[in-house]
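Closing statement on the zinc ion sub-project.
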Amino acid sequence: MWRVSEACKTSGRWWPLGLLATSLAGIGVVVFRGCWHGKMSWPVRAQDHSYQVCLSCGIKRLFNEKDFRAYGPYNYDLTHLIAWNLGRVTPQSEPKPRRTA
Ligand SMILES: [Zn+2]
């Protein structure tokens, strides 16, 4: 049979914490393309990384499961974020719009 009961117990504990940390971190978030990324999705796991997706504009940001908070730059391409995380490489293909009045 499936042995998921224990995994559910442990993983279910940090979801509310993660939500709290995310909302707190959202206050100091940087404006990007006119979107405040106020509504981020639940952390998604892919390619050994966790990331969140902005529900408004679809931008992605890496999520630290240990600290329960997002970190690093925003980018629409997850591969850029992973590359940044692995080698701290700054994405070069992303132009930097300066919309600050
Ligand atoms: Zn956004």
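Helices lie at 5-27, 78-87. With this model delivered, the sub-project is considered complete and its resources will be redirected to Aim 3.
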